[in-house]
From TrEMBL:
CDD domains: MFS_GLUT_like. InterPro entries: GLUT, MFS_dom, MFS_sugar_transport-like, MFS_trans_sf, Sugar/inositol_transpt, Sugar_transporter_CS. Residues 93-517 form the Major facilitator superfamily (MFS) profile domain. The chain crosses the membrane at residues 87-109, 129-153, 162-180, 186-207, 219-239, 251-270, 331-354, 366-387, 394-417, 429-451, 463-483, 495-514. This is Major facilitator superfamily (MFS) profile domain-containing protein.
Length: 537
């Protein structure tokens, strides 16, 4: 099922052509679905009227009878003729891209236990500031990587950007593994963060652009699954570090292996057909669509791509200032807000410092506590894999944050009220596990998936870069102040705040998030753009 990329054929980028007339065939595809897109609190709603449909149908009757391969597979499944395997051609490419998330998860957990051994061996044991610097410099690198990713992917495409990002990932892991001074460890962690920052932006973009519309949500959850498996792997591999003070070097050497796999695998993966079309490599784009989506999708997909490009222009000419214009400014606001709410809902406070939380309720084995968190996270991600294309992004996101709020309030209740000690401990553990599980069902995978779905083809990379930069800033702040706030105010007030932010996030999603299930990226973009154009008239 692997499809090698067609050799590069030099061609200039598609010229920028501004027109207010959308492609009539594209209009027909989404006018036949009388649904509404909205950005609630701003009173913005797009209505697709039924009376326009019949006229377009008469002009283009051939679109009514054409069925994509995925639809034929679905019909065959209902008749008992076989399983729906329309996702399979795209899976190897998505799997390789998700290796980046495995690395992300691995580096989240790799310093959880060994930081004590590293500090002792390199001579800064007991210095909490330097220990915190070794951990947090990773986030500084990730922030810079996120900001720069949008520009790189616009110019080079996803495949080459993935391969370039493996260079700091591999070098950083090797430098850290053989470090003999604090400076070397900090340099290595910074380089790893730089690569991770690029990849966390890149993976959702890549998956959203190569996955068939019907399976985009399920394939997108592989990001979360990869992160969970990376965390669990680092926790298992970290067990010997409790008895071997030099084991941390082995763990960091191991961290370089997925980087080599990613660089090699991307040599055989396909590039985004949307990007190929934008840079004028039309034959390459058609080849990718034929092999990954099916031959029947080629003509329709190319028409959609070109219609959007003609209206927006090639994103090779886009700039950061375009994020200040509608509808990009609204999507960037939603993307940044979603990540701010996600982080201040406390997920990384719970993940990074889960052992301390469990100590307060009687579980002193930090490895066991962290492993329980990792397995729970993985189970929730598997549920999201099954539900996201059936229930939709919006239901999962709202339900996830409501579940997180209830979980945090349960922990607060268990700690604050005079209960039997055993009952209090059990409720606290249950609340923490429920929190991680409900996060993994919606707030984790949906946040990274829905932002590229709402973003325009022209500015997708920069909107994602902006959104993830907000993520890393908030991630840093939570990690910096969480322990101090717990020591000053206690666990209950801090977790109560996490619960309140989760409720706020559920309300935000209700009023601002658009359901994108079952719609192509071009259909979503044309609908939102048409809505803003109608407001300006």
């Amino acid at each position: 099922m692997w499809v090698a990329t067609v050799p590069h054929q030099p061609a200039g980028p598609v010229p920028m052509i501004f027109t207010a007339r959308p492609n009539p065939k594209l209009v027909c595809q989404y006018l036949t679905k009388p649904k509404s897109f909205r950005f609630g609190a701003f009173g913005i709603r797009l209505r697709l009227n039924n009376h326009k449909v019949s006229a377009v149908k008469k002009q283009l009757p051939e679109l009514e009878t054409q069925k994509p391969d995925s639809e034929k597979l679905r019909v065959g499944q209902e008749k008992g003729e076989g399983f729906d395997l329309g996702w399979l051609p795209a899976f190897p490419h998505v799997f390789i891209a998700s290796m980046s998330n495995f690395l992300f998860g691995y580096h989240i957990g790799v310093m959880n236990g060994p930081i004590v051994s590293i500090a002792r061996e390199l001579g800064f044991e007991g210095n909490s500031i330097l220990e915190g610097l070794v951990v947090s410099i990773f986030i500084v690198g990730a922030f810079l990587g996120s900001i720069g990713c949008g520009f790189i992917v616009d110019k080079l495409g996803c495949r080459r950007t993935f391969q370039i990002a493996t260079i700091p990932l591999i070098l950083g892991a090797l430098i850290s593994a053989q470090a003999h001074s604090l400076d070397e460890v900090i340099l290595g962690r910074f380089l790893v963060g730089l690569g991770i920052g690029v990849n966390t932006v890149l993976v959702p973009i890549y998956i959203s652009e190569i996955a068939p519309t019907k399976y985009r949500g399920s394939l997108g959850t592989l990001c979360q699954i990869g992160t969970c498996l990376g965390i669990i792997s680092s926790l298992f591999l970290g067990i010997p570090s409790e008895s071997d003070p030099h084991w941390w070097r082995t763990m960091l050497y191991i961290a370089s292996i997925p980087g080599f796999i990613l660089a090699l695998g991307m040599q055989f993966a396909v590039d985004s057909p949307r990007w190929l079309c934008k840079v004028g490599r039309l034959n390459d784009a058609k080849a990718v669509i034929k092999n990954v989506w099916g031959a029947s999708e080629v003509e329709k997909a190319i028409e959609e791509f070109q219609s959007v490009i003609k209206n927006d222009g090639s994103d090779l000419d886009s700039s950061w200032l375009e994020l200040l214009k509608e509808p990009n400014s609204r999507v960037a606001f939603i993307g940044g807000s979603l990540f701010v709410l996600q982080q201040f809902a406390g997920i990384n406070g719970v993940l990074y410092f889960s052992s301390l939380t469990f100590q307060d309720v009687g579980i002193t084995n930090s490895a066991l506590a962290s492993l329980l968190i990792g397995v729970t996270n993985f189970a929730g991600a598997l549920c999201a894999l099954y539900l996201i294309d059936k229930q939709g992004r919006l239901k999962l996101l709202i339900g996830s944050y409501l579940g997180m709020a209830v979980s945090m309030f349960l922990v607060v209740f268990a700690i604050s009220f005079p209960l039997d000690e055993q009952l209090s401990d059990n409720l606290s553990i249950l609340g923490t596990v429920m929190y991680i599980f409900t996060f993994a069902i919606g707030a984790g995978p949906v946040t990274g998936l829905i932002i590229p779905e709402l973003s325009s083809n022209r500015s997708r990379g920069k909107i994602m870069g902006f959104s993830f930069s907000a993520h890393w800033v908030c991630n840093f702040l939570v990690g910096l102040f969480f322990l101090d706030l717990v020591e000053k105010f206690g666990v209950a007030p801090v977790y109560g705040t996490f619960g309140a932010v989760s409720l706020l996030a559920a309300i935000f999603a209700t009023y601002f998030i658009v359901e994108t299930k079952g719609r192509s990226l071009e259909e979503i973009e044309m609908s939102l753009s048409s809505d803003f154009m109608s407001r300006d008239k």
